[in-house]
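Posting for a labmate who doesn't have an account.
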Amino acid sequence: MKRNILVAYDRSNLSEKALQEAKLQAAGVPETEVHVVSIVTMAGPGTNAKISENIQYEMAENLRPDMERINREFDAESIPVYTDIVIAHNNRNAGTKICEYADENAIDLIIAGSRGLGAVKKLLLGSVSYQIVQGSNCPVLIMK
């Protein structure tokens, strides 16, 4: 039975920990594929869409070497991996885009890092991991 694992990657230490967990989950389990996805959300001044878009594309380009490294690491362990950088052209929470990707790609498990925001900060700022947990249609593993 095919199994798909999604890792939400944002260059943080906890997303690196999520990558390691995905390797453990996939090791020795035939037909497991890992999808590593980075979401680039709207950045820069909201009043100038072109500047914001340029910043997003630059951020995406800066992620490419990480994705190449991840491909090499998973290939070295013979774990099928797909990497993707998704540019969210609107100002959505990255967690929403992760959930959409999971639904579109028949993901069985999402692994993401938690930044450890407290209840007040989560309420005021929003939280990607919280959005993933609330919006996902599959199990979610949050790394701390």
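Reply:
Got it, the structure tokens are right above this. The mean pLDDT is 87.
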